[in-house]
Write a structure and sequence with these properties.
Helix content: 40-55%
CATH superfamily: Luciferase-like domain
Protein name: LLM class flavin-dependent oxidoreductase
CATH topology: TIM Barrel
Domain Luciferase-like: 29-315
CATH architecture: Alpha-Beta Barrel
Pfam family, one: Bac_luciferase
Number of domains: 1
Family: To bacterial alkanal monooxygenase alpha and beta chains.
Organism: Georgenia halophila
Strand content: 5-15%
């Protein structure tokens, strides 16, 4: 597992200082939302993901995850397992996976077969995070031939999937081929106490979506750690927390990236994709609706490399996190790429050989 070195970093005044204790040896991972920029298109989105994943591996990031979404013109990670395989093929050591698969949308057998196939092709590198939300709207659910109450069986579906990926049992009628015996690592994703308590009861790692749903972070992680039931594979609880990052060569440039992300969220969430001028978006950001958008991005690290270690360390302590998974919604793929490069340098991630 890649880890941070303890070499000195340079602060804004040019003085050398040690990395904060909370970020030394901290695993840092990437959540790629496969954002489609209208001027570039879907193919360019995939090409940018490959380029970022290859460099993220070299820079020392731990894992590279995609999230399942549907019926969203700006998100291209709908065929999540296919995209994971594409990235795994273009990398060699970094873990690749789902953060996550929205299990109520699927049969556990199909997911076991998909991820069993991935694990067989890329052994020891595949992660399977599982979420309970649909990853889209009601029209999408109808198109998938699903119902809102399908999420009620999430705990049972997780257990079934875990069994399908485990060793073959005597008398087992249904097997995942490939899948059986692959033991693909499972993670429970969530933004509420439900997922936290399920992960604790099943003895599984827990990933909290604090990058867009921050409200229950502390309560959920506390419940998870308090109620955790050790399992054979995971004797200790393990928390991954989501964090937005906007890093640039200067603090002002980073602030501009953060503000651009807020404008984008206004367009998507408040005006439902309606084209807005920057002035109109800023006007909404100054309103109560804008306050809601700002709250969604509450957990964001913004600044030049010198400003980042303390911000990330503060978040790690607050979230009681063992690992941070970062996402960066920037106006261009180039700005995103640079943001992750600077973050790796700021946190002293241990670079791998190319």
């Amino acid at each position: 597992m890649p880890h941070a070195t303890n070499h000195p970093i340079t602060d804004a005044a040019g003085a050398e200082s040690e990395l904060p204790q909370a970020v030394r040896a901290l695993p840092v991972s990437v959540l790629d939302l496969a954002t489609v920029r209208p001027e570039e298109g879907v193919r360019a989105t995939f090409e940018a993901s490959v380029a970022l994943a290859r460099d993220a591996e070299r820079w020392g990031y731990t894992r590279y995850w995609f999230a399942e979404h549907h019926n969203m013109a700006t998100v291209a990670s709908s065929a999540t397992a296919v995209l994971i395989g594409h990235i795994a093929e273009h990398t060699s050591t970094m873990r690749v996976g789902a953060g996550g698969i929205m299990l109520p949308n699927h049969s556990p057998l199909v997911i076991a077969e998909q991820f069993g196939t991935l694990e067989t092709m890329y052994p020891g590198r595949i992660d399977l995070g599982l979420g309970r939300a649909p990853g889209g709207d009601m029209a999408m659910l109808r198109s998938l031939r699903r119902e809102p109450h399908d999420s009620d069986r999430f705990p049972q579906d997780v257990a079934e999937l875990q069994s399908l990926l485990g060793p073959e049992r005597p008398g087992q009628e249904v097997r995942a081929t490939p899948g059986t015996g692959t033991e693909v690592p499972l993670y429970i994703l969530g933004s509420s106490l439900f997922g936290a308590r399920l992960a604790a009861a099943m003895g599984l790692p827990y990933a909290f979506a604090s990058h867009f749903a921050p409200a229950a972070l502390v309560d959920a992680v506390t419940a998870y750690r308090t109620e955790y039931q050790p399992s054979e594979k995971h004797p200790e609880p393990y928390v991954i927390a989501g964090l937005n990052v906007f890093v640039a060569d200067t603090d002002d440039e980073a602030a501009d990236l953060h503000h651009a992300a807020l404008r984008t969220m206004v367009t998507r969430l408040v005006r439902r994709g309606t084209e807005l001028s920057e002035a109109d978006a800023d006007a909404i950001l100054s309103s109560p609706a804008g306050d809601q958008v700002r709250t969604m991005l509450r957990y964001s690290a913004v600044g030049s490399p010198a400003a980042l270690p303390e911000q990330v360390a503060s978040f790690v302590t607050h979230a009681q996190a063992d690992e941070v998974i970062v996402t960066s919604n920037t106006p261009t793929a180039q700005a995103r790429h640079r943001s992750y490069e600077l973050l790796a340098e700021a946190l002293g991630l241990e670079a791998r050989d190319a």
